[in-house]
Amino acid sequence: MKKLAQFDDAWMAAFRDKSGVSDEAALTALRADLLEIGARYRRIIETTPTDLVGSPFNKTLTQRAEWMQVNVVNPAQKLLAALADDQKAWFSTWPYEHEFDMFPDRERMRADLDAVIAFSSRLVRNLKGEQKGDAATNQELRFYIFMEIYGAVRKHLPRLTPKQGVYAKLDDENTKRRVDPFPEAIRHIYAEITGIDEQLVRLIQMCVKDPDWHL
User: Which pLDDT tens digit goes with each residue over 154-187?
Assistant: First the structure.
């Protein structure tokens, strides 16, 4: 798989063509910000269940919360109860004592299990809270990536005016897409981070309606 979020020379050359920007100082500063943004979101994508390229797998908030409760919280709570001091007799090794090493430190295991339960239970609550807020990881992550891309572009290329562009059929595609330096530039950055070429129509419309959106 191609390594993403590199923003190399070939990518920068394509960006110049799409954006129409030739200010090398501004482009260099933009690239520095994009490398930081890209590295951060690649780490998130590659360690979070999403439908973006490079993610370990794609699961909904509901599926993640249920998995965490069933496979981590419940078993950990059951094991913690079994490791209570008044349950030690269950672990008696007589008359096979010579076959066993010393049992692991119960206090340390209980402390570790408490930490696992606290961590996992809080994550379950957070995931369920996101469900109630009608959020979804895939859409939310796209939003945050776009928001930071837009902030960087506005910071370094303020003359690249937010526009939706006009629908045009591209020579190498069988569908139409909005064409203008602004959406083309934004999509080019977005694809380099996510590995997906998406139209981003709704998000671009927000920028056109209010250029200071989320800045």
Answer: 999 999 999 987 776 665 656 666 689 999 999 9
Cβ-based neighbours of 208, under 8 Å, separated by 6 or more = 162, 163, 164
Note if the pTM is more than 0.85: yes
Q: What is the pLDDT of residue 38?
A: 98
8 A C-beta contact, residue 194 and residue 50: no
Q: Residue 6 burial (CB < 10 Å; 0-12/13-18/19+)?
A: middle
Buried b (16+ CB within 10 A) or exposed e, 191-209: bbbbbeeeebeebbebbbe
Tell me which H or E stretch contains 178. Answer: strand 176-179
CA-to-CA separations, 199 to 45, 80, 101, 167, 187, in angstroms, rounded: 20, 50, 62, 11, 7
